[in-house]
Here is the input.
Amino acid sequence: MRAVSMTGQARAITLDAHARAQARLRTTAAALGLLALAGAFWAGTAKAAPVEAPAIRIAEFSPVGSYLAGRVAQSAGDWDLAARHLSQALQADPGNTGLMRRAFLLHLGEGNKEEALRLARRIEGADGESYLASALLVADDLANNRADQALARLPALPSQGMGQFVTPLLTAWAQAGAGDYDAALAALAPLDQAAGFRPLKLLQEAVIQDLRGNAEEAGRLYMELARGDGQPLRLVQLTGNFLERQGRTEEARALYAAFAEGNGANPIAADALEALDKGRPPQPLIANAHEGLAEAMFELGSALHQEGAAEMALLYGRIALMLDGGLDLARLMVGDVLAARDRDAAALSEYKAVSGAPGIMWAARLRQADALRRLERTDEATKMLSDMAAERPERTDALIRLGDIARMDGRYEEAIAAYDRAVKRQEEAGRPEWLAYYLRGLSLDGAKRWPEAEKDLRAALELNPDHPSILNYLGYSYIDRGQNLEEARDLVARAVAKRPDDGHIVDSLGWAKFKLGDYHGAIEDLERAAELEPAEPTINDHLGDAYWAVGRKQEARFQWRRAAQQESADEALRSAAEQKLKHGLPLPKTAGLPEPQ
Here is the structure.
């Protein structure tokens, strides 16, 4: 099937190149280890829409009521309300270290710096062990030039759980803050024992050597990290900045240009190229120990974010920003985590707080438009994107998002007009991109202009022959129309090979087989699709049809009933399923296959 899955897939792939280039300084094994540790700590926290604040005031809750309300609010994703409730409960039980830790984490996640610091000191004073509380206290010491106090905290730093990764970073930057660079480098040695942490360790070493003035060793480390394709944006920034400061401007230019070319004319890399062209004197991106620790916390948070540990990524992002409020990539990450948790108003505030060069501002403004759309402030989002499209006639990302807004609202002709402009810009620049053709094809299909839609989908497939979204949408469109069925089956089979655990795509393959009369083969795929997406009414409906075709009529009726009863079923599907429950399913004759019993 295509209708449900395609909207989400198309939305996901419109993210700008910066979002796709978040730091990846970890391997799968290391990241999964971090994810397991994070998951153990946050077990029981579910993502859901934020709860509404109660009508009565928090102060009127009993201590037990405040605790329960706080846990419910946390599970529902409203950390602000949860933090206030649990702080109220903590007043009645001030020695409860477990409650103290939870309240601390919630305040930290909300960016409530002073309250988080106050609770971190209480945790430390109560002999409680929290690597995040330790991280925040060391960070605060370094940010306020108290390296001696940061060093005094080192013996008590935890070494278990996430502490085995965090403590070496805290120790290294506390030593660097005290000017002992040899001790700082030695402190990173335990990261050699953690699978996949070598890139993170090497980056810390590079920055420390850079700060101490050892340009030869810093350069060797930066270049070792930057070697090869697919490097993250932040590493490109740091390496390029180092090369510029060493007078190696052509190497820096080549690095920025390669990244920009491989990432959709990335506007942040374009800023760096413009600064080079104008001869602006480069300033170090990391000028002291507390900015170095901010970078380390951001890199760690980015690795967790990439592996889906959003809550932990948010916490490390907050510490990074408390150390260096100008670390805009960390602020974008924090905003992205909040947006993913349906905290769109809070995400919008973070995106608006981004400042700096035009490229990073461009990335932030695109995200602002996304947040405004989700907040149903569509007119504001549309105006912002229209202004952006006019500002930069060489770019198409604002136009793509403009088309997305109209398409998701069902205003297909408006969407087509926006995508037309994007396609024209790309063709004039000699750089056509599959995404614009694909999204315009979806909109043309929605506008009942199938021949034009088919042409665009074919163009997208030619530009990106193996993308599962294109394969599935084109294949399912043929299946739905009874056209090119054998080709359609082959297209969706290729999509399944690329994305075998996507129930919607597996459903497409099963439906293609059904249309071709291969009912038993269809059942095998449709049962798998139903396992992957048990609450999807279209899949239930298709499976019912396949069961009926082989004479399994009781099972067919069960699936049709499920389809009709699903809340997400549209009226047409519900009505069709109810008719089949009453009258069964007439099937066309298929050569070589027996009639259903």
Remarks:
- The chain has 33 helices and no strands.
- Residues 3-56, 590-597 have pLDDT under 50 and may be disordered.
- Residues 433 and 463 are 7 Å apart (CA to CA).
- Residues 161-375 form a domain with the Serine Threonine Protein Phosphatase 5, Tetratricopeptide repeat fold (CATH 1.25.40).
